[in-house]
Amino acid sequence: MATRLRARLGTGYPSCWLQGWRLSPGLPGGRLAHAGAADRLQREYDAVVIGAGNTAAYLQRAGVRTAVLEKRHVLGGAAVTEEIVPGFKFSRASYLLSLLRPQIYTELELQRHGLRVLPRDPYSFTPLLEDRSPPRSLLLGHNMAQTQRQIAQFSQKDAQAYPEYEAFMGGLVSALDPLLDAPPVDTAALGQGSLLQRLMALQDLRPLLRAGLALGRQLPRYYEVLTAPISKILDQWFESEPLKATLATDAVIGAMASPHTPGSGYVLLHHVMGELEGRRGAWGYVAGGMGALSQAIACAAVAQGAHIFAEKVRGVRARGDGRAQGIVLQDGTEVRSKMVLSNASPQITFLDQPLHWHLPPQEQLPKDFVQRIQQVDTRSPVTKINVAVDRLPSFLAAPNARDGQPLPHHQCSIHLNCEGTHLLHQAFTEATHGHPSSRPMIELCIPSALDPELAPGGCHVVSLFTQYTPSVLAGGQPWDEQARNAYADTVFDCIEAYAPGFKASVIGRDILTPPDLERIFGLPGGNIFHGGMSLDQLYFVRPAPSYSGYRSPIPGLYLCGSGAHPGGGVMGAAGRNAAHVALKDFRCL
């Protein structure tokens, strides 16, 4: 009935394994087991969670008997560590951590369960291709004076403006931050029910009102940030193209959008909303790869008594009255539950036949809801390439040390083809016509620079987050092996121009185009956020109007993944918020 869950970890097992938790060899379901715990998938639970995440840990710690069913052999969805090339451990999909809500660290005691984060400082490196020797580069870090000196290479005016820009964006983040940790306002409830119920619904407006008050007289300027193209906002602050292009990458990363696309400012804001070890906007690597984060969350759930199995769910089962009452596994086994929470995308949960087997037919779902889910923009520009190399890249703008050891810039997000925002727009335009970018935007990360156990001695793992690549190629051509390798070769040629010798250092590579990201990780259209983060797909309308509060049209079925508010990015907020909503309903059953 079940398969063993083979968790591939980077630098050893999380602390819960060392304290007696283990993957149960040979046990049906491959459950994370502990002495005295039940070894088999039970036929009934209070809640079943489809796909790994933090939801189960919150439900189980509240006394709700919970099982998690993960379809892959590796736990964690897109936050996994996999050994694609022997000896090299890759964060195969997601690769950096910042947006995970700080409450989750403390409430689930993730550090006690083995999570170790490696902060980066400096954090951004943009080498240039230019006719001078050596070429210039832009290095950004948390030391403001040093960062200003770097910016001053290109513009004294920009160097002086940068601290004010950081403070301005920080003010907007601080005002909006509380909105991430609660369901959106239920606008339908404001006009329904008794006077008391309406007054109670009005209380939900308080976070929005507090956000507005916090923005104060700056509200019009902040409104412009949320709605305008990021190129317009950056032009108001800066004049140097390398700085503007570097900052603009956060506004388009993962989005089929150009810096000139209206609303791209919010995507930038989304990526600076996080924090790491109390430092706002900081990003870091997870020791052992992103899979170690998933393992720590799993440990937190199992320590409370949750069951985790490697099982493919065929569908959600509903009673005659339409209420969800459990799930059906691929082999036909039924597991009953009072609640079902889906970490899968809204498209898989409600539209794809495999998951809504035994649900009322699609025609019985509200037609406007079905239409809204069908219309969600899931276009993805992303091709992720994981590379094993036998030495560190040596950039013309910052050559390697003689001993070959990592230098400060090697720990950064290294931005290539970012000499100006026009290059980002050009790359985007090519993709809109069905052609992979001829000079793609590349974010190159080398996590082994801070975590050497990810690779054999002297070798490194390189993460290439590249765009723009359309999900569907011009003329309907498939993303076959030839097309995938041709694009990867283009990316490698670009890197070679900045760091001669890179191609000769390559031992192996793993190419994940948008269709690959969808097929392997269940990301709709390959979209890393389960749907675009444009303003028309956020807050009240994520994933659809009247259903932004995690409850679905099927009573007892909840969304708890990135397709729900507030979106994706290894944030955990949707899972935590959905658990609280489901717990509230569970206590009324």
Q: What this model shows, in words?
A:
The chain has 589 residues and is α+β, with helices and mostly antiparallel strands. The chain is 32% helix and 17% strand. It is built from 19 helices and 22 strands. Strands 3, 4, 13, 14, 15, 16 and 22 form a 7-stranded mixed beta sheet that branches. A 7-stranded mixed beta sheet has the order 9-8-18-19-20-17-21, sandwiched between helices. A hairpin with a 5-residue loop joins β14 and β15 (324-329). α5 (156-176) packs antiparallel against α7 (206-215), α10 crosses α11 and α10 runs parallel beside α15. The longest helix has 21 residues, at 156-176. It is globular, with a radius of gyration of 24 Å.
Strand content: 15-25%
Largest sheet entry: 7 strands, mixed
The geometry reads as: globular
Number of helices: 19
Number of strands: 22
The radius of gyration is 24 Å
Question: pLDDT average, as an integer?
Answer: 88
In helices, the fraction of residues equals 25-40%
> What are the low-pLDDT stretches, counting only 5+ consecutive residues below 50?
1-15, 17-38
**What is the CA-CA span between the terminal residues?**
31 Å
Structural category is: alpha+beta
Protein name: Pyridine nucleotide-disulfide oxidoreductase domain-containing protein 2
Subcellular location: Mitochondrion matrix
Keywords: FAD, Flavoprotein
Domain Amine oxidase: 55-403
Draw up the topology in text.
Layout: H1 15-18, E1 22-23, E2 32-33, E3 44-50, H2 55-61, E4 66-70, E5 81-85, E6 88-91, H3 102-107, E7 117-119, E8 124-127, E9 137-140, H4 144-152, H5 156-176, H6 195-203, H7 206-215, H8 219-227, H9 230-237, H10 241-252, H11 264-271, E10 275-276, E11 279-280, E12 284-286, H12 291-304, E13 307-310, E14 313-318, E15 324-329, E16 334-342, H13 346-350, H14 367-375, E17 382-389, E18 413-416, H15 421-432, E19 441-445, E20 460-467, H16 481-498, H17 502-505, E21 506-512, H18 514-521, E22 557-559, H19 573-586
Parallel strand pairs: 3-4, 3-16, 4-13, 8-18, 16-22
Antiparallel strand pairs: 1-2, 5-6, 7-12, 8-9, 10-11, 14-15, 15-16, 17-20, 17-21, 18-19, 19-20
Helix pairs in contact: 2-12, 2-19, 4-5, 5-7, 8-11, 9-10, 10-11, 10-15
